[in-house]
Every structure is written in structure tokens, then in C-alpha cells.
Amino acid sequence: MRQNLLVGLAGFLLALQLGIFPSAGSSFEGSEFSVLVQIPYEPPPKAEIPDIPEATPAPTELSEKDKERLESLIPLLEGRQEYWAMGEFVHYGKHSVPYLVKALKMPGPRVRYNAIETLGMIKEPSSVPGLLEVAVDTNEMSRIRSHAIRTAARIDPSQVRPAIQEMVKDPNSTIRNTAVYEARRVRQKEILPIIIGVIPDPEKYVSITARDSFWVLTGFISSPHDWEISTEQDRKEWAKEWWAWWEEHKSKFDSPPPAKSSPKAPESPEVH
Fold first, then answer.
1. For a Cys-Cys bond, which of 127, 149, 203, 206 suits 135, CB 3.0-4.6 Å?
2. pLDDT tens-digit profile of 97-123?
3. How many CB atoms lie within 10 A of CB 13?
4. What is the DSSP string of 200-220?
5. Within its chain, how far is the Cα of 246 from the centroid?
6. Given pLDDT bands bounded at 50, 70 and 90, which one contains residue 265?
7. For position 17, what pLDDT does the model report?
8. CB-hemisphere CA count at 13 Å for 8?
9. How far is the C-alpha of 164 from the C-alpha of 139, rounded, in Å?
């Protein structure tokens, strides 16, 4: 009883503060007002989460049945079951690499593209040579070549420099642009002259990508130039700044910077 009186009094005071009661001298007749009351709170029931079984681990060694299964999955990389097939390859992990590298030479472009995508999810360095073979193949579709070099550079950038060196000379400007963009992932001294060589590219967007990749790796910023209205001759002249910087600083890239030594622990103070 006392609790109900307190709740009612609290509602009355709140209504009075908000001014929802009629002013003095007016009648309550025909007026409407609200009184706030507390509704009992009942917490929701706890959710029942069923036990989720653990995924079956990939085999350490392939049986003959596993090999037949992986072989049969290759054609399924194209069609309605392509995502399921990709998931199966990922489940087998590094054991799938030889079969996916084989898929890189299949006639269907969708099979080849999905094989590259699957190798990118597995991230096995032994797959990089097969990807680079696709990347430098001038008879392959440009989007598949570009996807191959991107994937290889993300799996193991230390292997891709020879392919990039070849691709930046490709007749297809899209291939040149992709190659010099991925060059920024290669932390090797030899990649820097390759990037400088692309700055005078006939296509200015390729040249700008080379400029940015060099900046990412070195932090070098040249004097201001208007790249949007530049000509190939302009870019050939500007590239001399990069060559001059390289000649001055290339010795700094002969060896990686020394590892920072850990700070010494403070000596225990002597107690007198």
C-alpha cells in the first residue's frame, strides 16, 4: 500500500513539473492527463545455445580417395557449385595447391579466375610460381593476369620481382599499372630502379602509380609537377629527379636497418 502511494505521489509531482495539470481556477472536466507508473520488469529467458560440433580437420596426408575427390572438384570451379568447390579446396589447405595450379591451365576463364581466388585464401607460398606463370602470360586475359600478380604479391612478395620487371614492359597499360602498383609490396632494393623506369610511361595514370609506389617504399617526394596535363616527354624529364635521388641514396638500401636493441633493465638500488 505504501509503495503504491509513493508511486502515485512521484507521478503527481512529475505531472506537476511538466505542467500537464490544469492551471488554478480551471476545471478538470474534459481534461486529460497522464500519471507515470512503474511496470514490473521481467527479464527475458536465457537463450539456449546448442553445442556446435567442431569442423573435421584436414587430413595430414592425402589418400587415393582424397586425390580423386580433389581432381573431381576442378571442373566445379565454374558453375552453380563453384563456391562450395572453393570451400572444399580451402578445407584441404596446402594439399589443394597442385590441383589448383592445374586448374590455372583449364580452358574456362571462370575456372582459372576462381582457382586464383582460392589460392589467395589458402596463402601457400609454393603456389606463387604457378601464379606468376599466369601473370606473365601475354595470351591470358588481362583481368586474370592482374588477379594472379595481386594474389602472388599478397602471398609472398619476395618472389614476384622478376615477374613485375617483365610486366611493367607489357603492351597492355592495365597490366603495367597493376604490376607497378603491386611493386610497393616488394621490400627489395632491386625493385626501386624498376619503379623509376615506369615514371616516363606513355600513360600518365601508370606514371602516377609508379610515383606513388616509389613514395610508399622510400618516402621520397619530388618537386611539384602538374601530372594531369603532363606529356610523356615531361615525365621523361621529371624522372631524372628520381634517378638522381636513387644514385645518392641507394647505398642505404644495401642492408636492412639494424634491429633496435632492447633497453637495459634498471639496476637494483643498493640499500645502505
1. 149
2. 999 999 999 999 999 999 999 999 999
3. 10
4. T-SSHHHHHHHHHHHHHHH--
5. 30
6. very low
7. 58
8. 5
9. 17
